[in-house]
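can u pls check wat happens w/ nicotinamide-adenine-dinucleotide
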Amino acid sequence: MKILVTGGTGYIGSHTVVELIEAGHEPVIVDNLSNSKESVLDGIYGITGRKVPFYNVDCTDLEAFGSVFEAEPGIKAIIHFAASKAVGESVKEPLKYYRNNLTGIINVLECMKRYGASSLVFSSSCTVYGQPEELPVTEEAPIQPALSPYGNTKQICEEIIRDTVSSCNTLHAVMLRYFNPIGAHESALIGELPLGVPQNLIPYVTQTAAGIRECLTVFGNDYDTPDGSCIRDYINVTDLAKAHIKAVERMESGKQKQNVEVFNIGTGVGTSVFEIIKTFEDVTGVKLNYKVGPRREGDIEKVWADASYANNELGWKAEKDMRETLASAWKWQTTL
Ligand code: NAD
Ligand code: WQD
């Protein structure tokens, strides 16, 4: 199946392109390289032996985006990753986030209607749950007021998708609420490329271990958790990528129960920051320089997924364990 992947040279997009090829699909990439490099295509080629059609196009430019559909007739599905994703930056530059993330999804839906693509997979986030009252969190948990403009764009995009799909009976969507994606492809030919000082835990850990950063700060050890540090559900990026293939195939084979469906994509297991540090040191044999600092503003204390709906309905399950995943992150870091 010909599938358009927006943001396909990005972190999750590139891993999904590899899995699409391995599942026999024909991905086409659109990316404006605002947060990735064209050389990612070489990594994809190295793994799959396939040169994927690539368009350096901005999804917010409707005319340019539409021209990709003209050049690539027969696109049936879109996996829409392209978005700005830095939480802190979104607080400082909210309009950049509203413009990029909202105009992007509007143009994707517009082109799906114009050019007859029927299935959409949207990158949503566990950020929509805020601090859930009950854990593990299910898809039925209430959506909390967003803690950042970035988080708000995910909530608004979900609403835009629901309204558009209910207005047009040819459209279908699956919204995947990712928990915390980490790790890299086992080949270490593709992985995460954070710009500047990493905001996320795992790139900070690997850069500290590599001597690029002096010391990791653990943001708070006085939370109401067994060891006092925050708990997240860290999901291997290749496992996450595979959920997108299941989602597209579910829509195209008419197995959806509703025209818009939502799935949590996580492992179902919560891991604390201290547990991550310990496992990383154990797996790599590298001693990590870290200290405990104050809590980070806006951090959620603990969240992990109830992924049983994805397990049972989508036929998807996280397969890789934390040791393998942290080893892949370290292998990738050592190639940079
Ligand atoms: P990423 O920044 O690595 O990838 C996004 C890609 O989209 C980049 O290559 C960037 O150049 C491109 N892009 C951005 N705006 C564009 C535009 N207007 N037109 C064309 N290309 C554009 O990010 P990622 O971690 O791979 O995230 C992918 C998606 O998953 C995003 O929508 C993100 O919000 C969502 N998500 C990410 C995480 C996470 O922790 N990484 C968690 C939950 C949800
Ligand atoms: C994980 C844990 C930190 C860095 C963010 C976004 C969220 C989502 C994923 C997209 C937390 C701790 C971190 C450090 C630390 N993205 N930490 N020292 O905060 O769960 O989620 O990325 O939708 O929207 O908010 O991920 O990797 O930043 O933090 O102690 O230097 O690591 O406090 O407990 P987070 P993260």
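Residues 94-115 form the longest helix (22 residues).
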